[in-house]
């Protein structure tokens, strides 16, 4: 930058500062003059006028406002003045010549010289000329008298005016003398000035009124026009600020004096002592007091209950009109009393001298913290600001105690038997008013100490709790006849008085002996027999009614309304019979359950009961139901012809029902006898076991007290022996008709038991007297004799079963021979080519009658054993039907039709003989009448064979030792192995079928073994087709699993209702003459009989055995 231009700028900046100072000085003079004028006027006013405090406040406020305005004026004036460099250059140029502006020109040229080319173009001057002009201006500016710029026009006159103003103020102050000082002080501090002379008169001033009254207040003010203010507060408010209300001019009733203005207000609904005063301008009246005559009283209560933790409830607030408290024990009650007026002191006093509770007072209320611990009464004592005391109450405190929990055992019952798996499922429910925390189990085994276990625990507690607990009793080592007494308890979470525990009623779990279980089942079966006998009577009555209705239907073309009603009643009676059968079936199922759960019994009786249960289910669900449906459908159609056919079918069904019910009753009676024998045997075993255990305990006894305790056990054994003697006596009486030999053996055991009672007495006396040696001899003698009795009773039971089986076997042999002889005679009739159709009809009718007799004998035999399956009766029914058909054909001279029917009858007779032979063979080789044990052994063998086959199949899977050949194709050796495995699988399937046929089952009783047979068939097909994949292996694993589970499935009673029985057809006819002796003497070979029958119903696998057995029968060598 050009040095000459810089020098010029320095001069011009100094000139600008001088110009700014000139502006400030001029504005300051004007502001000071204005303030001096205001001060002079304020001082004159204070000296000349009688001012008071409020006026001095106004004067001071005016002076402060004037000073602020002067300051603002000065700032605005300075800010609006022009004091830039151009103005400074122009003012400096005028110091040379008023018309001179050379410095301003040089300043502009200097600014343009900073950009040379642009400057030359804008000004038209060369750069050298411009610099020369700037330098000349800078030299001239340096020589200018710049201080002259501070001078401004009128400065001297302004100074004179300010001096005059100061002189005037000083003269006024001097003339005022001491009043000037006082006036200045009062202007500076208006509080030192006197108040204005204002007069205030208040009506009524202080007075006493009734609570809730409204008090009119009139205020008369003289000396000011301003509205006065009413200041008020309750007397009990203490240091709280006054409430201020502006008073309005009064209406016509006011009587102001001269110079007064009247104002009025109303203080409404006074409930507290009230202090008030009136302020007019800065004048305040005295404080007046309006007193309320009412004593403090409660207008309401606000109560908040803070419940204890054990309740699990949140705090709760409520409004009440009394101070009565009711809450759970341990609650803290926050009581807030709403009062008509404020009080100074509030407290609670309990009746009975308990500690006082001091409360917290507020504006027209009092607060208390009241603990609820017990029932009590209390009063609230209040003291108002005037010292008056009031007692409120009495009020009651009701402490609601925490009720103990309730607990209920839903199952098991009061006395229940232990199940076979030694577990008990306890289902219990517990409730508590505030929550259950624990569910406990307390029990005692034998004479041991009680034990307590926690079944369930809740963290926070619930009001209702249900617990299901599976209790394993195996670790307790229970013996038959022992029991567990137990209780379920519930504990709450009360931490105030301590947790409360409630126990349920004592219940008992018994490990029943086999004799007790059998006795219970026997009692149930007495009821079942009575129910079935009643059902038979009902069925027979319904049968007669059905026959009568069927005859009536055949004589009419239309169905009368009365007959329809009779048929409907008959159906209802049939439904009753069905319900009776259902009831007995359910009882049999329950008996089977009870026996199956006994650990001491074999499964024979269970199987028999299960068979009877299934038999009744089939009868109820199929025969009766179908017949009822057909009658109902015909009744709905209103067709006499359909009804006649349906009634005929109903008649046949009822006959079948009667026969099956009679069979069930007979089987139940036999089963009842077997159960009695089983019970006697089990009781004998129990006697021997207990006596042996007592002898062992005696050998270990060391103290006399221990021996005396054993005397109680000996008494229990003696009591059990008396029960055994009574059972043997009853058994001998019932066996006299059925099996005299078993009855004689039962009497012998009864007398033998009677003879050992003296030994019992001797043993008990020795134990009570602590004579160990004598007691040992007696107990050992008893143990020996009871063991011998146990063996004898078991032999009696086995002999009874053996004799009954032999008797049934002989009758089955006779029935088989009858069927074979009838079949032989039937074959002779087929071979007779000379007889005419009439003779053939007569002969065929005789054979039919003979077959009916055999059928009746087999039906009676079926009442004594379960081995005779429905297949036998179905085959005989087909034979009878074909024989009847043949009689009809021959009678109509239809030779070909008669021969065909006779041949079918022969085949059916052979099939019946074959089925009966299988039943006889199975029963002859069985250890029992049902063959259950043999079937289980067969299933175990089949399971072993299946396991070997599965292992071989796994070894041939890819990755095994015998994996597939090259490229996944089977080698000739592998293909041959699969063919052999398929044959083995088919053999196992045939064995399973035989095992199922032994008991006449289709798989339902033994764990769905029918489906297992289908699985075996699929495996055999896969293996024959050369397929061995993962699916085949999995199917084999399922087969093995079901074979292993089959014995257990029997005891779980997994029955199926898909079996059906088809009864034989009854035919009513006249009896022909007896068969000739020659006909009965003929004994053709079995091969000839079967050859003439047209087909061989016996499997080739059993052909040799069947031939041998039949030949032995025909030759009279069978046993």
From TrEMBL:
Residues 232-246 have a biased composition (Basic and acidic residues). The chain crosses the membrane at residues 27-51, 57-76. The keyword Transmembrane helix applies. Residues 658-730, 772-799 form a coiled coil. Keywords: Coiled coil, Membrane, Transmembrane, Transmembrane helix. It comes from the Bacteria. Residues 232-255, 831-855 are annotated as: Disordered. This is DUF4175 family protein. It comes from Eiseniibacteriota bacterium.
